[in-house]
Specification:
Layout (H helix, E strand, L loop, with lengths): L5 E4 L9 H14 L6 H8 L4 H11 L7 H16 L7 H11 L4 E4 L4 H11 L7 E3 L12 H10 L6 E5 L2 H9 L3 E5 L14 E3 L16
Helix pairs in contact: 1-2, 1-4
Length: about 220
């Protein structure tokens, strides 16, 4: 059976159904400045990307919309909080898997969100006691699909990348994990924007279905 010593979880779209909310929040923040995107354009701008990359791409498209990442971030956060208050965005199968794995292994979150946003999410998900650490956009550069984030996690864990298993939901995240030399399990949920997950080693519709024994024979 494949032997893994640590498990790394993406946050948005993997542990929380927040990525769709971010798409709408960014769309509304730009519309506040008279910069309008349709739904497909918003998904292309936001989905699977870190916050710094989203801002840089938005600035290229709309140079006068926001002067800096902080001002745009504040407006996006306002819209995000309003949307989040309307629904429960936990993904139960993923959160329960994280808790189960954390009983026996080091577990961390590697996200494209800012650290303060991850801290809020960890409290919301009630998983602080399960995590060894988390890394956000403040901790590495460039963002996914560059492998820098997962390389940083392996360094912090003092483990070879091949002993780490990553759970992701986006094509950028999957590519980043594979470029880092890690095994990657992808989450493909119904009702969310389609992502190219062909580079993943395994794909599940719900991480409650995941079992380490499933990987027997996949990697020695």
């Amino acid at each position: 059976m494949a032997v893994f010593e640590a498990f790394l979880f993406d946050l948005d779209g993997t542990l929380m159904d927040s990525e769709v909310i971010y798409v709408e929040a960014v769309k509304r923040a730009l519309a506040d400045q008279g910069c309008h995107l349709n739904q497909a354009q918003s998904v292309e701008l936001v989905y699977g990307k870190g916050w710094k990359d989203i801002f840089l791409e938005a600035r290229v498209r709309f140079p006068t919309a926001y002067a800096d990442i902080e001002s745009m971030g504040a407006v996006v956060r306002k819209h995000f909080d309003e949307l989040k208050a309307e629904r429960d965005i936990r993904i139960p199968g993923s959160v329960n898997l994280l808790r189960d794995l954390a009983r026996r292994h080091p577990v961390a979150i590697v996200s494209g969100s800012l650290r303060r946003e991850i801290a809020e999410a960890v409290e919301y998900l009630e998983i602080s006691s399960c995590l060894d650490f988390y890394l956000g956009a403040d901790d590495y550069f460039p963002g996914k699909p560059d492998p820098a984030c997962f390389q940083a996690a392996a360094t912090k864990l003092e483990l070879p990348p091949e002993t780490c298993l990553v759970f992701e939901d986006s094509s950028a995240g999957v590519v980043a994990a594979k470029r880092a030399g890690m095994f990657c399990v992808a989450l493909r949920r119904d009702g969310v924007p389609e992502q190219d997950l062909t580079a993943a080693d395994a794909v599940y519709g719900d991480l409650s279905e995941f079992k380490l024994d499933d990987l027997e024979g996949v990697r020695s």
